[in-house]
Amino acid sequence: MAKEKEREQSIHVNTSQETRKLLLNLSRRLDLSQAETIERALELLDQNNPQ
After folding, report:
1. Residue 3 lies in a domain
2. In terms of domain of life, where is this protein from (predicted)?
3. How high is the pLDDT of residue 44?
4. pLDDT reported for residue 13
5. Angle in degrees, 0-180, between the axes of helices 32-48 and 2-27, rounded to the nearest 10
6. Which of 9, 16, 35, 41 could crosslink 27 through cysteines, CB 3.0-4.6 Å?
């Protein structure tokens, strides 16, 4: 049971890191207002998933 919970947490962290990478790459290709929206999403992601 503990192993499964640990595995789920690990998957969640990995998913968050992948999401962050994808958003960061996307923000580099967008105009300024869209990039600001992505940056805000990254801030919220960081708040919800402290590392």
Report:
1. no
2. Bacteria
3. 87
4. 66
5. 160
6. 35
pLDDT at 6: 72
User: How many residues make up the chain in this entry?
Assistant: 51
Query: The domain containing residue 44 runs over which residues?
Result: 18-48
Residue 19: count of CB within 10 angstroms of its CB = 14
Q: Which residue stretches of 1-51 are H helix?
A: 2-27, 32-48
Read off the pLDDT of residues 1-51 as tens digits, 9 standing for 90 and up.
Answer: 677 777 766 766 677 788 888 888 887 887 878 888 888 888 888 888 765
Domain count, the chain: 1
Give the span between the Cα atoms of 25 and 45, in whole angstroms. Answer: 15
| Tokens coding 21 | 């990478």
